[in-house]
Amino acid sequence: MDITEMLSCGNPDYLATLIDRTEKLRLDTLGNQVYMRGLIEFSNICRCDCFYCGLRKSHTSIRRYHLKRDQILHLAEMARSIGIYSLAMQSGEIASQAEVDFVAEVVRSVHEESNRDGSPDMGITLSIGELSYAQYQQLYEAGAHRYLLRVESSNPDLFRSIHPVSQSLERRLECLNALKEIGYQVGTGVMIGLPGQTWEHLAADLNFFVERDIDMLGMGPYIPHPRTPLARSTAGVLIDPYTTTLKMLALARLMMPDINMVVSTALQTIHPEGLKMGVKAGGNVVMPIFTPVDYRMDYSLYAGTQSKNLDALHQEIESAGYQLAFNTWGDPQHYYRRRNLPYSDHHHPDVRAG
Ligand code: 5AD
Question: What is the pLDDT of residues 298-334, one digit of tens each?
Fold first, then answer.
């Protein structure tokens, strides 16, 4: 079977076999650890107008917020105090130099604060969109070392059909190149179940990730947001987003054994077993949410976001036979391999255990 056939095969036994195979490979190569990124959605202000996203700038009925420096530092400290040594800082896209300076300053301060008493440093992932080479470099020098920028689809026509003309796939690819050249651990990803998306598109996405030699992957089902144009699309949705996402995760894991792959919030939102199955299908990263409760409702990319707190994550992961990895950065092994460096997981054994 080729990848397209594996994706389109509707036989549930086939899905179960695929997940079993993936789970065996993963346990052999990566073990049963699941890394954490403390998620801080520090702003929902966005200059983009993506047809699928609840944060698009034309969506005027949400309250826009932007956390202050000290609020973010406080959240980082909360994460660190429970042994979560990696943060994911996300926001809508604001490319102004003032905003980049702000983020750079926060990143620098997170490092400074965590180093102050000789305790372990924090790993920092940014996911704040398309910036210039110089801005990516500035943030890297400030101490961000991972960057996530999804392409949403590697197919130019499908990309075009879900974005305004001012946004292009080429620009995303340029950004991914810049990030890699600067030295970031680079992640990308796609949405699954988009109107007009075919099995061939998804198979091509998997090959795209391999060709790009990415370090991290974030894929999740597309969930229509009622107040966005794409929710009214009449283009056919060919696939069951839940089982297709599980298949995409499993195939990605088989094709890229040493990358980090997140179990997306969207997957956890569309199915009660999304977390457990996402981990079994090869996901080795979860993102417990640290965004203050008051703002979570305003960060709604799609309808019904289900963000699990740490206790819930812990229980579900353990009952699936996996372990949350405290006190570690949890870098992707792939990054070290592609750069011919010895793997270091920045583990901090002497600090508080989970
Ligand atoms: N459904 C699922 N995922 C979405 N995202 C944005 N809107 C939606 C949606 N309606 C994802 C995109 C984006 C990330 C921030 O969230 O992949 O890159």
Answer: 998 988 777 777 888 999 999 999 999 999 999 999 9
pLDDT of residue 237: 86
Angle between helices 133-142 and 169-182 (to 10 degrees): 40
Contact 244, 274 (CB under 8 A): no
Q: What is the pLDDT of residues 55-95, one digit of tens each?
A: 999 999 999 999 999 999 999 999 999 999 999 999 999 88
- Cβ 225 under 6 angstroms from ligand 1: yes
Give the nearest ligand 1 atom to 150 CA: 18
CA of 226 to the centre of ligand 1 (A): 13
Closest residue to atom 2 of ligand 1, CA basis: 222
Long-range CB contacts (< 8 A, 24+ apart) of 314-319? Answer: 314/354, 316/275, 316/276, 317/34, 317/275, 317/276, 317/279, 317/286, 319/276
Residue 351: is its pLDDT beyond 60? no
The predicted structure's pLDDT at residue 217: 98
Asked if residue 194 has its Cβ within 6 Å of ligand 1, the reply is no
Instruction: Check if 196 has its Cβ closer than 6 Å to any atom of ligand 1.
Output: no
> Is 241 strand, coil or helix?
helix
Are β-strands 191-192 and 185-188 bridged in parallel, bridged antiparallel, or unpaired?
unpaired
Q: For residue 347, what pLDDT band results from cuts at 50, 70 and 90?
A: low
- Cα 161 to ligand 1 centroid, rounded to whole Å: 15
Atom of ligand 1 nearest to the CA of 230: 10
